[in-house]
Every structure is written in C-alpha cells, then in structure tokens.
Amino acid sequence: MRNRLNSTLLPAIAIALGLASASLPATAFAQAAVRATVNDQAITSYDVSQRIKLMKLFHQPSGDKAVLDDMIDETLLDQVAKRRGMSVPDSAVEERFNGIAKQVKLPPAQFAKALSSQGVQADTLRKFLRAQMMSGMVIKARARSIKVSEADVQAQIEKQGINTENATIKEFKLQQIVFVVPKGSSPGFVGQRQREAEAFRKRFAGCDGSLAQAKAMKGVVVLNMGRRDSAQVQGPVGDELKTTPVGGTLKPQVTERGVEIIAICEAKEVRSSAGVRAEIEEKLTAEQGKNLGKDFIAELRKDAKINYK
C-alpha cells in the first residue's frame, strides 16, 4: 500500500478544487467492468477510475496498475478485518473527512461538491479513508503478535554496555481530562468537543488547577492516572510524552469515552532495571515491525485467489 494522504499536499488539492468550475460527470456504475477479483470480491473499473482521480488531486502515485494493486491490498486487509470482527465507525471516517475539508478551508458540504466538480464522489474519499484506517488497525493487531525473546533483550543490553543495576527510567505522574461524548453522538458533536478540548489546552493552568477548570465546563471529568514510566506508555503517545514538558498536555485523542487529554503533572528519573529492559524490548519490537505491513500483505497475496481481468 503506497498511497497515504499527506497534510503537506493539502494546499495542492485546495488549488485544484478552487479551479473547478463545472461539474464533471461520474462514470456510471452500470458501465463498470470488473478489473480484478480478490477471493471472489470484485474491484470494478469505476472503483479504479475514481481512485485514480482522487490520487491525482492529492498529487499521489496514480498509475493504473499501482492503484489497482493498492486496492487489492486494501481488500485483502479488509477481509482479514471482517473475519476478526474489526470495523471502523462511520463517525471516525466522517471526522477524518471533515478534518480534510477544514484544512482546505471549505465546509464539508461544499468540499463534497468541489470533489464532485473534479469527477470524484465524496464517498470515494470516504472509502479511501476507511481503507487507510482499517489497514492500520489490522497491521497494528498483527504487530502485537511480534515477540522479542529475553535472549535478544539481554544481547542488546550487553551490546550497549548497560549496567542494569544502576539503570534509570523516566517516571511520570499523569492526569487525564475527558470531554465526554455519549455513544451515538453525531460527528458534529465530536468535532465540537475537539474544539473545546483544544481551547482547554491553550488555557491549561497545570494539574493543580485543572479540576477547578473542568468543574466549570459541562461534561468534563478529570481522572488521576497515577504514575507511569516511559516503558508503560508506548507508541505515538509514548513518543509525545517524552518530548512534552512538565505542566504541558498531549494532543487530544478521540476514544470510546470522548475526547481525552493527558496532562503531565510531574516527571523524574527512577532506578528501574525492569523499565530499561522493557524499553529495549519495545525498540527491538519496532525494528522487527518495520517491514511488517509489506510482509503481511505478501503473505496474504500468496494465500489469496486474485484474478486480474
């Protein structure tokens, strides 16, 4: 899967959409021919032509064969997701769609019309965003199955010359501020809560005053997360945690509970051989997972029934 929407390319699509004047007719579904089947699931010429137009708008690789192969990869990963009962909520897709509209300075409805004027249906972008999110979920789930042996960890410790008896790790005291979003809320309400969370971050007065701040806001709760070391908080959140100063907050994240902000109340170095070993294990796991997506897709392709038409 080569294509990813890059925020630095959004000005290009804004210009392209701004130049649009007349609506271009979309290819009729009835005229679509099957270009490929993936385990008997069809990818049509309409699907491919729509994706090519979308990729051109975003200045992404848009060759016919490359686009078709990307769509085959996405279909394989989507089939894995369905077998495992994984799904991407419509609200998450709409949130991403609206986010792109905001970045190109258009209301969502006008953004959809602008896409249509370039021959791209809004649902084509939504399907692409869903495929990106779904593929990420499947590959992350696969990554969790990677196991690093204790022997590998010990070998890395010896290679780096680490004295585990005197090793230290950073420990954080964290607080969580949750802007509650009830289940079934509209994408618009989620967006409203995100704006409220961003505004809260700008005036965040530190952990001591956050409870009082939250009490003044409707539907906001503050939770003490206690102490966590850097080995316990991994991934993008862990990376952001390591670079955010005490008294600062991490970027808001949309979760099942709502929009959540993590505040750093305190940070200090503590002696912990277990923590150091966990950090090394995380790094080794990340290294092993670099080519995981490509390897996994190659494995799926090998076992799949793919027919090009």
Description:
- 52% of the residues lie in helices and 17% in strands.
- It is of the alpha+beta class and 309 residues long.
- The chain has three domains: 7-144 and 294-308, Triger factor/SurA peptide-binding fold (Orthogonal Bundle); 148-165 and 272-288, no CATH class; 168-271, Chitinase A, domain 3 (Roll), CATH 3.10.50.
- Helix 2 (45-57) crosses helix 3 and helix 4 (90-103) packs across helix 6 (122-143).
- The protein is flat, with a radius of gyration of 23 Å.
- The two termini are 21 Å apart.
- This is SurA N-terminal domain-containing protein.
- InterPro entries: OMP_Chaperone_SurA, Trigger_fact/SurA_dom_sf.
- Residues 1-28 form the signal peptide.
Rounded mean pLDDT is: 83
CATH-assigned fold name of the largest domain: Triger factor/SurA peptide-binding fold
Indicate the overall shape: flat
User: What's the number of domains?
Assistant: 3
CATH class of the largest domain: Mainly Alpha
Radius of gyration: 23 Å
Query: Which strand order does the major sheet show?
Result: 4-3-6-5
Multimeric status of the protein? single chain
Order of helix and strand elements from N to C terminus: HEEHHHHHHEHHEHEEHHE
Gap between N and C termini? 21 Å
- The CATH homologous superfamily of the largest domain corresponds to Porin chaperone SurA, peptide-binding domain
Uncertain runs: 19-28
Which second-level CATH architecture of the largest domain applies? Orthogonal Bundle
What amount of the residues lies in strands? 15-25%
Biggest sheet character: 4 strands, antiparallel
Structural class: alpha+beta
> What is the helix fraction of residues, given as a range?
40-55%
Q: So how many helices? A: 12
Count of distinct strands = 7
